[in-house]
Specification:
Blueprint lengths: L1 H8 L2 E2 L3 E3 L2 E7 L9 E2 H7 L2 E5 L8 E6 L5 E3 L3 E5 L4 E3 L3 E3 L3 E9 L12 E7 L2 H18 L6 H15 L9 H6 L1 H10 L6 E8 L2 E8 L2 H19 L14 H10 L1 E6 L5 E7 L2 E8 L2 E9 L16
Parallel strand pairs: 4-7
Antiparallel strand pairs: 1-3, 2-3, 3-13, 5-6, 6-11, 7-10, 8-9, 8-12, 9-11, 13-14, 14-18, 15-16, 16-17, 17-18
Length: 319
């Protein structure tokens, strides 16, 4: 936990850029090392990472990941994998050790397909939309606490995708979340082309029409630059949903949100792959971080809402 507190205190908030209701407040870090790992997209492109179904029959909440490369590979919470028997999203941030094979916890985002279209998965240049990531993160944290298993609520995820697809007018014969990103690709590309990473930027706090939507931060500017388009699509899709965010007149307080993340109650679990998985709850926050012997690699947090458990409590909006 002291390592996480040190990481959070090393971040400073820069001047935001706003596009289509989405404001991106850069998180800057003056002391940062080059990444000691490859990103998912780069490792797949290099041919050193192979992701497939766990068997010919397959198992919806699990995939097989083989890292043949000489460096660890970072797979991000919410990154989408496309192909094989159905598209999936990753349940939590994972660092796959070099020359290692692991079982990756995932959730389906394509309810109407269960047949092979490829032997291996490709890495989509997007992450699951932010409000869905928030709910899934809460579900996974609850499952870890109660069942020692990083599982999401599959039925709830399918239901969310169906409702959001209706709102955005994006239909798919297989109920694929991908259809929403494809239908709104022009607007999402406009957001991405309008925002560039800064030299010391390692992450961002995102707000939608004046309401804090969440934050993602990494240990290295290089990782942020490589991952930023995926996360802009994640938060951007929510910004294109008129039911998400504030009324546009609120003044968000990103520093208050970051302080709440730092104060949230932390529980530490063994990570899938290398390191430790940190889970944060309380004070209107739901979040997680991956910590290794090299320090915090990735942290993510959202203002809490109904996070997939039967308590029915709602967290602070943390404007």
């Amino acid at each position: 936990m002291p390592e996480f507190q040190s990481f959070m205190s090393s971040l400073s908030i820069g001047t935001p850029t706003t596009v289509d209701g989405l404001s991106v407040y850069p998180l800057l870090r003056t002391v940062a090392s080059p990444p000691f790992y490859d990103t998912l997209s780069d490792a797949v492109r290099l041919g050193t990472l192979h992701i497939s179904e766990v068997s010919d029959a397959g198992n919806v909440p699990e995939l097989r990941v083989v890292n043949d490369g000489p460096r660890p590979v970072l797979i991000l919470d919410g990154e989408e994998l496309v192909g094989a028997k159905q598209n999936r999203i990753v349940n939590l941030t994972v660092l796959v050790p070099e020359r290692a094979t692991i079982t990756l916890p995932v959730t389906c985002v394509e309810a109407g397909r269960w047949h092979h279209v490829s032997a291996e998965f490709a890495s989509a240049e997007r992450a699951y939309y932010a409000s869905g990531r928030r709910n899934k993160l809460g579900q996974v944290s609850f499952s870890m606490r109660t069942h020692s298993s990083p599982m999401a609520d599959q039925s709830a995820v399918w239901s969310e995708i169906a409702m959001k697809s209706d709102r955005l007018g994006a239909s798919s014969p297989t109920g694929a979340a991908a259809a929403m990103y494809e239908q709104r690709s022009g607007a999402l590309d406009r957001i991405i082309s309008s925002i560039s990473p800064l030299p010391q930027q390692v992450g961002a706090v995102f707000t939608i029409r004046g309401m804090v939507a969440g934050f993602d931060a990494f240990d290295s500017p290089a990782t942020w630059a490589r991952t930023m388009p995926k996360l802009l699509r994640s938060y951007g899709l929510d910004a294109l949903d008129p039911t998400i965010g504030g009324d546009g007149f609120a003044t968000p307080d990103p520093q208050r949100f970051m302080d709440a993340v730092s104060r949230a109650t932390c529980t530490v679990y063994p990570a899938v792959g290398a390191g430790h998985d940190l889970r944060f709850e309380g004070g209107g926050i739901v979040g997680a971080a991956l910590e290794t012997s090299n320090g915090v690699v990735h942290a993510v947090a959202f203002p809490a809402a109904d996070v997939g458990r039967p308590s029915g409590r709602r967290g602070s909006r943390l404007h």
